[in-house]
Each structure stands twice: as structure tokens, then as C-alpha cells.
Amino acid sequence: MLLRLTNSREFVALFHAVLRLGAVVVPVSPDLRAPQLDHIVRDCTPTLAVVESDDAEWGSTSVPSMDVAAAVADAAGTQVDETLTEVSPHDVALLVYTSGSTAAPKGVVCPHDRVVFAAKAIGERLGYRPTDVVYGRMPFSFDYGLYQILLAALTGASLALPRKPTDLEALQQIRDHGVTVVPLVPTLATTLHLLVTRDPRPTSVRRFTNTGAELTVEHTRRLRAAFPGADIISMYGMTECKRITISEPDDDLLRPGTVGKPLKGTEVSIVDESGAEVRPGAVGEILVRGSHVMAGYWNASVETVERFRRDPVTGAVQLHTGDYGWLDDDGDLHLVGRRDDIFKRRGVRVSTTEIEAAALAVGGVLEAAAVADVPDAGLVLWYTGDLAEAALRITLATRLDPARVPDRCVPLRDMPRTAHGKVDRKLLVENTARSGGHDV
């Protein structure tokens, strides 16, 4: 069953109901437009979809559907049938489509046992309490948001679901609901910092968690200044195995740059281009083994074989993440960048995340996204803030080596976002290719 809904009580109820029936949940963002939506529908061929009453985009599909208001009305007063389908732990629970920021979305096949393992392992490390109120701002179509439903259910915490899910109203919603735990991505972290500078009244927030895109040192500094007493937990993961590592609450102060140690039952190794494991401190591709590695991609056998490979010695499935990082002597993971973020310039291997972190440390810069390897454009830094382009480039030239200094710094009024709240890098690449990095 495809659920194309905003974060709501109705979504939570339908999510649990569909899983209990033994059917497969396919969460899809209401913000997806026709091309991506049509791709997902053709790929997974849902039996039924539940959509918002005003979902005009859905009308272009041929899948049987009902709007969520009708679904709730039909269920009211209905006798519950306790004769449920018997579900095997190996049956598919979820098809979660990747965001498709650089390619068409792929459906990650998530069996029940692997989802449960991941949720329990994450819950043990995050320390949610029965008294916690978790901010449900991250879209349920994004696995980071979706798993908040499971984490709240496992711990007895409450889940606060904003009626108007806009970042500009986030601080007021956090206060109104007495939120204590805020799952976020860097774009929301930036917005919350700005909102607090305008309205510094205290909140009940005790903990921030982050995944999806790395929080820089500047992000964590701003969050701690805006929310004194709250701690920050950085995490690393991907839809293909949900979560890989989780940091300790104060690692951003004591061990800046780490995304923590692997989850219980998870093994992480770093390998070079030949597949040989490297020593601590050496950079290579991140490989993951564990009971939370999902079952591959739906209708994509070639991509599944490429990413989900059998260890030739143990026979265990290893997820080849395509990300690069290194392990320190204590076993903590440090990210260097996604495969798509790393490029060679002037003979030097460079990561866009390094450039973005340097830009965020410059006063007057709120957000930054670097784009490289676009023909005739060079290295372009898109940013928001009130600092002049020339001033930013001059400052970066004093802090970065020549290989990492952008050819151009281009200001934006607003940073483009994906449906999951991340920076829309695909759109920035398209803008860079179209304009040569000279304007929007």
C-alpha cells in the first residue's frame, strides 16, 4: 500500500495497520512531482494508495486510491478483525525509495526482521525516554522520519506532529508541544539558530539528533549557543541499512568530526580500491555488515549485486556504501564524503564537504553547497547569507589551499531543498551547468 501523506496521526495509524495485515508500506512524499511519482508507481505497482484529499498530482496515476479523510471515516466504528495474516520475519515490511538526488529513486527492500533489529539497536543508543516528546518534523517518506514512529513506540515516547510542517514555524511548534528531542538535518539546524536569535526564550529541548547530511563544527556550535544544555548526537547511515554509527552526546565537543561507533551487531571496515582493508587513519570506502543490511533494491538486480556483495570468506552480505571515511584508533568513524562529493582538482583529492565547512565558518554565511566537475563552470560555491561574493572568496583563499578555493561564490536568496529537507544538489548542479555558475 502506498501512503502519500503528510506527517499525521492518520499516517501513523495506517502504517501500523498495514504492517499488521502483512502488506507492504510504501511511504511517498506528497511533494513529489509527476515524473518521480510515476516512476515509483510503475516500479512498485501498489494495490492501493491513500492520499491527501487535495492531492491534485495523484490524479495522473491509474492506481486505485482513497483519500485519507474517507479512509478514516470508513474505519470509524468498524469491528476489528483479529484474524490477521501470519507474517514471517523475512517478509517485506517496507519499500523505502531513496531520495533520488542524483538519479531515479530506487526502492530499498526492508524485511520485518531487519527493520526491527535496526529500530531496537538505534533505540538503545539514542536513549529516548517515556517522558520524551519527539519532534516529528522529518517527513515520514524519509526513513529518518519514518523510524521516529518505531522509536517512539519502542520507548513509550510521544511524537509531536506539526500541522504546518514549515521550518519557519519549527521553534514555535517545539515550544507549543514541549518538545525534548529534535531529529534534524543541517538546513533545519540553521533555521532554528536564526529563529532563536530573534526569540531567545528557553525551550524544553534536551537532545538533537542528526543524519542525512553531516553537521559541521559550525552547525553544532550554533545549535549549542541557541539551545544551552541540549546535547547533540551525530549519526551516519543510509536507507540501505538504516543506521551504521551513532556518536556519544558530547562527541562534537570532545571528538569533533566523528559520527561515532558502529551499532551493536554492526561491523564497519574501510577498504582501498583493490578491496583490501586499510589501517586505522587511512581513507577508503566504507563497508558495512550486520543484521540491518537490507535485502537489496526492488526490480533492480544489477544495482543490488553491485552494492550488496557477498564476502568471499564468510559469505555474509556486505553493503558497499560508496562513501569514504576512516576509522580512528578507538574505532570511531570519520566521514570524508560521498563518492559523488569527492573529485580531483589540481592533482589533489578534494571533498565538497571540506569547502562547505570552511564557508560556514565565515561570518555572514548561513548555508553553503559546493558543486564541482561541471564542464566550463569550475568549482562553484552556492551560499545564503549577507556576505558579498568577493569578500567570501577572499576569506576562503586565506583559509584553504588553492585546490579547494572556489572559482566563484554565488549568493542565493534561499537554498533549494529536496522533499526530505536536504539541500537539493541535483538542482544546483543543473543551475551550475546552465549558467556556468554565474547566477541562478
TrEMBL record:
Keywords: Ligase. The keyword Iron does not apply. InterPro entries: AMP-bd_C_sf, AMP-dep_synth/lig_dom, ANL_N_sf. One of its GO terms (biological process) is fatty acid metabolic process. Residues 4-298 form the AMP-dependent synthetase/ligase domain. The keyword Ligase applies. One of its GO terms (molecular function) is medium-chain fatty acid-CoA ligase activity. It comes from the Bacteria. Belongs to the ATP-dependent AMP-binding enzyme family. This is Acyl-CoA synthetase (AMP-forming)/AMP-acid ligase II. It comes from Saccharothrix ecbatanensis.
